Structures are given as structure tokens and as C-alpha cells.
Amino acid sequence: MTLEQRLEEYQAVIDDLTFPTVKKWKSTHPEGKVVGMFPVYTPYELPHAAGMLPVGLYGAGGKVDIDHADSRIQSFVCSIARSTLELGLRDLTKDFDALWFTSICDVARNLSGVWETNFPRQAVRYIHYPQNMTSPAALEHYRTELKQLVLMLEEIGGAHVTDDRLRRSIAAYNEQRRLCGELYKIKEQYPWLLSTWEAYVILRIGTLIPLEEHVEILKAAIPEVRARKRPPRDYVRVLLEGSFCEQPPLELIKVLEESGCAIADDDLLMHTRWFTEDVPTGGDPFLSLAEAYINKARYSSVRHYGPRPRKEEFLKKIKDQKVDGVIFAAPKFCEPALLDYVLFKDELEKAGIAYLGFEYEEKMGVFESIRTQAETFVESVMFFS
Amino acid sequence: MDTHQSDEQKFRYQGLGRDLQKNLLTAWYDRIEGAADAGRKVAYLFVPGNIAEFLRVFDFELVFPEVNALQCGVRKTSGDLILKAEDVGYSPDVCGYVKNDIGMMLAGNVGPSGHKLPKPDLLLCAYCGCTTFIKWFEALSHFYDVPLVMLDVPYMRSGKIEETDRKYIVSQLKELIPICEKITGKKFDHDKLTEIIKHSTEAEELWVDILHSAKHRPSPFDSYFEAVFFMAPIYVLRGLPECTGYYREAMKEITERIEHGVGPIPEEKVRVVIEGPPPWPHFRAFWEMLKKWGVCAVASSYSKVGGFWDHGFRHDPSRPLESIAEYCLTCYTNLSLPMRTELLRSYAEEYSADAILIHSVKSCRSFSVGQADMRDQFTRIWDIPTLLIESDLADPRYFQAAQLRNRIDAFFESLEHKRLVRA
Ligand code: SF4
Ligand code: SF4
Questions:
Q1: CA angle, A100 as apex, A98 and A102 as ends, to 5°?
Q2: FRET label pair with A325: which of A273, B314, B335, B395, CA 20 to 30 Å apart?
Q3: Closest CA to A80 of A64, A93, A95
């Protein structure tokens, strides 16, 4: 099967809201447990080390009407929270044994509470990530938090997570992150060989299947992408910022690319590239994961930055990636993205860098206005540079 | 002996709570404005999880951006300030308080009472539940070019105080000492902290007495519409002797009302528990909509955002840092959704309420996400009549008076009808 055909196949799996990969895994692992992982970053290593299947929960991508969730969460809330709950209320997440939400925002926090009351059969956990990055106490606190998560997994029937098991899982996820990074490097250097929407599909399928299968997919895809015979094109190089949690419709990414943007880097599916370097595989693995979160994570609007402000990292990325402009695409109602937008754009205005900003929703059906804005943006950047 | 006392003789203390509160707050804003001249440093912090006692050891003047925002709301200036923030790129959908504050800063940082507000010397972000707090202070750090100092308060995710969370906060408080010493040039003084906390504890006792007074029938006190004024000193002046003095005086007003069997409205017909912050720009109008039905709020969650004392917690002079940590953990904003739901339910029982009213604030997802689910539980599981209405706490555009009035009228009419049927 060609890569293109495989992409179509992955896409069909991603679009299938009945979680077919989970069903398949459960049929071969009758005692196995599945943990739903709400974005942005969630420690996949832990359920993996407990012999469980961690699965990304990324809403419904606009493929479901919000009929039931409306009576639980009002309309002025991002799509991912409402559609994820809708999946639950339609019984589509019944194969999940546990769900993890993290301290990214007030919505995810309260969604964890709504889930806890509405689905008593599922074990729900809200993970507190350290926000005080300069406090030495944060490390120990988060290490304890990770240990408690493991206890929870063991309680619901996971294998005992020994340090060795966890080290092996850390090594396995290091490899996955390295491969995802490699794929992104190709996109950054030779955007005509791999478009962002293709990279997205390759990464996204990984949130639905066992890690080992995804590593194989990545290993097969990378050389195939490199070997593609596609002629270089003229692009405007952009950074896509703000889409770190709720994922934009794939159509939107395609529209941006068709308008002449090469997305040199982005924050889509961020957990696949969360750490800037490998998590150490020796020593205390809980400490390693905790330390990596505090000191080796990429900047994100949902993680407080500590002594080095996020805007510095953002400007550094712009410089390193040699982009011509920035596209802010934020989910409607997403406070972390929309509040940071103002600060980022302020920096861009000071530095004289072009940008375009808009909001999206899962259910968005018409992209013409965005296409026009993107085309005008591309033209103006080309003209001015 | 003449048993017919005139109203003047009968009611010597009415209005005291409001008037004294106003004077105290004006004096506080005067001090903030004059901080530089008095050689005092200024700390910005949030009401929930405010470590006022700790900062007072270093003689910081305390500025609470939320209090500025709410006062702008009451004085009806928030609408214009919000638009100012939207002019620089803030979305119409983000927290109205943040936009109000940033709009105010952009307009020259003149506070709601006309005082010129100084820049922060310390920007202390206690992450006490609301994640928007962090984003808000990150923005202030950007605009003022002042580093943000974080006090990370873990959310009450397991439904109780975890030892690891308490320890973590205490460690951070200890790490904060040298930072404050450096900014103010003043040494940390343990005995001074103990003294300050003693004032807090005393004020907390009195405040709880006022809150509990609403168990009387009729309730002498509206635990929402009046509490928002009565609670101001314990939120922003806690630890100062005048704060304790205030509650002693305010208590006289309440005691007098109990003695004479009067309350905030002429005739109490319906007792409710209210969840959510008020719509500040239409505070009066909202109250009138409820007064019309003889509604008295006997308990509310909003009066617990800056501290939750009525179920027993007190700052403790013998465990200063530990009790500050517990204070931060238990503020209403830091309670998990199931804890909030249970608290409101228990209030309905404790205070013999007839209904629960949820004022859902569109731009405050910290409060509002999940409130529809709460309503569902109140009505379905506990059979407590519950009304959920939506507007905003700062943005006047979201207050649809006619629509709100219709919903409120329909709800209380049906409540009245049900009572008649039952009777
Ligand atoms: S999209 Fe934004 S607001 Fe919604 S859950 Fe994610 S981070 Fe929170
Ligand atoms: S979201 Fe709500 S709790 Fe948070 S800062 Fe805004 S008004 Fe306050």
C-alpha cells in the first residue's frame, strides 16, 4: 500500500467515533484497560508501563451534534470539551476504564468534575502539573503526583509499575518522540515533501493505537516521505500557533497550505513533541519524568513558564525556523490561546513580523473567509519581503 | 416606662456595615496611592488564596486587580474599559475581569475611585483554582515588565486536603521569604506574622457569626447581595486591627436586626442559595428582580471565594504557614466541581433554603463550566428547585434584562404555585 493509501486508511480510523482501534485492542486483551488522555500533554508512559492502552481524547472533530452535552456544559465553551462529553453521553467512550484530565485550563478542570459525576464507572483523575517552575519543591510534588497516578492504575487492574517497566516505557516514548520530531524536521526543511495535514494524520493515528504499532508506522513513513519525488514550491514560511488543545478541522490546515503557506512548525498534537530532549532512562524514572516536565518541555500557553518568559521562546522559534510570518489559529472560547495571542502579537508588532489571527470551531463548515484572509496574508508577506 | 421606642431608638446600627466598609476601603485606596511616598512597596495579588498575613509582615500595600474590576463594574465603567482591551486584541469571549483590568491599565491605571494606582513591585500569582489567574498575571507581567512570582496551589482534586499539597505550599512560602525581603528590605519576623494572624482569626470568627445569622427566620442578612459588601474587609484588609474592628461593629447591625426580627427585605418569602459571582454592572437591577418576589439569599458560594471559614477553618497563629496553606487550598475557587455541588446542596439544607439560583457568568468558565450539570443534579437527585440564568460579571453587553426578568418571574411564580398547592 502506498503512503497515500495508508493516510486515507488512518484518516478513516480517526474519523470513526466508535473508537474501532480500542475495540480491536480490547478483543485481543480481554483483561486490558484503556485510559483516555485529554490533551495537551499527558504522561502516556504511565499507562503504557502498567500494560494498558492510553488513547488520546480529541473531541469529535465536528462529526457529532451536541444534543446531550448541552444540558451539562453551556454553549460558550470550546468545542472539544462539549464534543468529548457528547461522545461520553452517547456511550461511545464506554470502553474506557479511566480518563485523565490535566491542569491546562478551567474548562478541562471542570470537565473532569462533570465526568466524575456522570460516569461513576470510569476512574477519573485530574492531574495537577507544577506551575511554579522555579520552586525546588515542585519537583517532589509532581513526582508524588505521578506515583499516585500509578497507584490509581494499579487499583483498576494495571500491572505493577516497577521502576524498570517505567524506564522501558520512557525509552519507548523517547523513540516515538524522536521519530515524530524527525518527521517534523522533514516538513520544516522540505515542505513540498510532506504537508502539515499529512504529518498530522500520521501523528494523530498514534493517539489511537498501541505505541509499538505507531513506531512502526513512523519508521515506514519517514523514508517514504524522503523518497518522494515532488518538485520544490514557492511558499511563505509560517509558524502555526494556538492549536495546542482542540485540533482545527483538517480542512482548515489544507486551506492554509493551498493558499501558499508552508507551516514550518506548529503546536498541533503537542504531546508528540512535548519534550525538547529525551527523558533520561536511568535513575528514578518518576523523578526523570517530573524533571523533564519542569525543565525540558517546549513552551506552551497551558504551562507556566518560570524564569524564561514564553514570548522569548516564541521569538527564538521564529528566528530558528526562519519563518516569514505567524498564523494564530485558536479555538473559539479557548482562554489560554486567546489571552496569549495578544502578548505574542505585541512582540511581533515590535519586531515587525507579519501575522494573521483567527478562531476556529470543530463544527466549522465554510473556510472561504479564511482562504481569502490567508491568500491576502501570503501576498502581503511576499510583496513586503 | 415607655415601651414604644421610636425607630431611631430601635435601630441605632443600621447601615453601619455598608458605611464603615466604604470608609475603610477609601482609606485603603488612599494608602495604595500614597505607597511610594510612604516608602512602602506594592504587591498585586488575587482575592482567592491571598496570603495577606504573610505579605503584611513585609508591610506591602496590597492591590487586588479583581476588586478594581468589580468596583469598575459597580460604577459602570467596565464596559468602556473592556472595549479598550478588545481594541488591543482581546477576544470578546475571554474573562471580563481580565479585560477590565487591562483596559484600566491602558487608560492610565486610575482606579475605580479615582485613585492613581502604582505599578506592582511584587506580582504574586497564587494559582488558587482558576487557571485564568495565571494568564492574567502573565499579561500584567508583560505590560508592566515585572517578573511574575508564582505560588502554586494544587487544586482540591481528591476532595480533601492532601498532605503533599500542604507541604508544597509551605515550602513555596518559605522560598518566598527571601524574595520579599529583597524587594522590601525588611526582614521576615515570625512573631509579627503570629500577631497578624491573631487579628485574622478573630475577624474570621465574627464573619462566620454573620454568615451563620442567615439561619434565622427571617434572615437578618442577605448572604449574597449584602455579603459582597460585608466580606470586603476580610478579603482585602485581613490581618489588620481595623478589619477585626469592622466585624465587631457590623455584628451590632446584624444583632439588632435579629432582635427586631427584620431582614434586608420587608417580607422574606423565599430563601435561596446563590451560586456564582454577581453581574456587577447591573447589581441593583438584579437584586430588584429578586426582591420583587421576597427573595433572600441565605447562603452563597461567591462569599467564599476569598476564604471558606463557615465549616470550621481558621488561620492558626500556632501553625502560621501551614494554616495559610490550608486557607489557600480551601478557597471556593479551588474546590473541585463535586465539592462545590455538595457544598451548595448542604447549604440548602443547613439554611433551610427553598431553591438554588445559579448566576452563570459567560466569560468566567472557572465558575460556569459544569453549572448546568450541577443544576441537573440538584433537581434530579435532590429535588431542589434550581434556576440557572446567564449573564456576565463585568461585561454589560451580556445582561439581557427583559429575558432575565422573564426567567426569574416564571421560576418564582411556579415556586409560589407549588407552595400553594402543597399548602
Ligand atoms: S481548547 Fe482551550 S479552553 Fe478548551 S479545553 Fe483545550 S485548552 Fe481548555
Ligand atoms: S475566569 Fe472567573 S475566577 Fe477566573 S479570573 Fe476570570 S472572573 Fe475570576
A1: 170
A2: A273
A3: A64
Q: Which ligand has the nearest atom to the CA of A359?
A: 1
Query: Measured between alpha carbons, how far is residue B409 from residues B160, B277, B295, B389 in Å?
Result: 39, 20, 11, 12
The answer to whether residue A139 neighbours chain B at the CB level (below 8 Å) is no
Which stretches of chain B drop beneath a pLDDT of 50? 1-2
Contact flag B94-A128 (C-beta cutoff 8 Å): no
Residue pair B336/A113 in contact by the 8 Å Cβ criterion:
yes
Q: Which helix (H) or strand (E) holds A34?
A: strand A34-37
3-state SS string over A19-32? CHHHHHHHHHCCCC
Phi, psi of B126 (to 5 degrees): -85, 115
Q: What is the pLDDT of residue B2?
A: 47
Ligand 1 center to B144 CA (angstroms)? 27
Q: Is B372 on the interface with A (CB under 8 A)?
A: yes
- The single-letter DSSP state of residue B116 is B
Torsion of CA B238, B243, B249, B254, to 10 degrees: -20
Q: Which ligand is nearest to the CA of B306?
A: 2
Helix (H) or strand (E) holding A187: helix A163-189
**Ligand nearest B131 Cα, by number?**
2
Cβ neighbours of A220 (radius 10 Å): 13
Grid cell, residue B13, equals: 446600627
d(CA B144, CA B127): 20
The helix (H) or strand (E) run that includes residue B295 is: strand B295-300
Task: Give residue B233's Cα distance to chain centre.
Answer: 10
Q: Report the alpha-carbon distance of residue B406 to residue A382 in Å, rounded.
A: 55
CB A82 within 8 Å of CB B372:
no
Nearest CA to A170 among A51, A35, A37, A289?
A: A289
- The answer to whether the Cβ–Cβ distance between B131 and A103 falls below 8 Å is yes
Q: Which is the closest atom of ligand 2 to the Cα of B66?
A: 8
- SS3 for B185? coil
Rounded CA separation A264/A279 (Å): 25
CA distances from A300 to A41, A312, A324, A336 (A): 10, 12, 21, 9
**C-alpha to C-alpha distance for B187 and B176, rounded to whole angstroms:** 12
Tell whether the torsion through CA atoms of A87, A91, A96 and A100 is positive or negative. Answer: positive
Q: Which of A109, A137, A342 sits opposite B168 (nearest CB)?
A: A137
Which pLDDT value is given to residue A358? 96
Residue ranges with strand state E in A85-166: 98-102, 123-127
Single out the residue of B397, B334, B343, B340 nearest to residue B370, CA to CA. B340
CB A126 within 8 A of CB A109: yes
If you compute the radius of gyration of chain B from its CA atoms, what whole number of angstroms results?
21
**Residue B173 CB: number of other CB atoms within 10 A?**
18
Residues of chain A with pLDDT under 50: none
Which residues, 6 or more positions from A28, have their beta carbon under 8 angstroms from its beta carbon?
none
- A103:B134 CB<8 A: no
**Would you call A308 an interface residue with chain B, using a CB distance cutoff of 8 Å?**
no
CA distance A364 to A361: 5
B 42-71 residues inside an 8 A Cβ radius of A: none
Residue A369's CB: how many other CB atoms inside 10 A? 9
- CB within 6 Å of ligand 1 — which residues? A 78, 80-81, 104-105, 107-108, 245-246, 302, 331, 334-337
Residue nearest ligand 2's atom 2 by CA = B364
Contact A309 B132 (CB under 8 A): no
Atom of ligand 1 nearest to the CA of A246: 1
Cα-flanking dihedrals φ and ψ of residue A89, to 5°? -70, -20
pLDDT of residue B423: 78
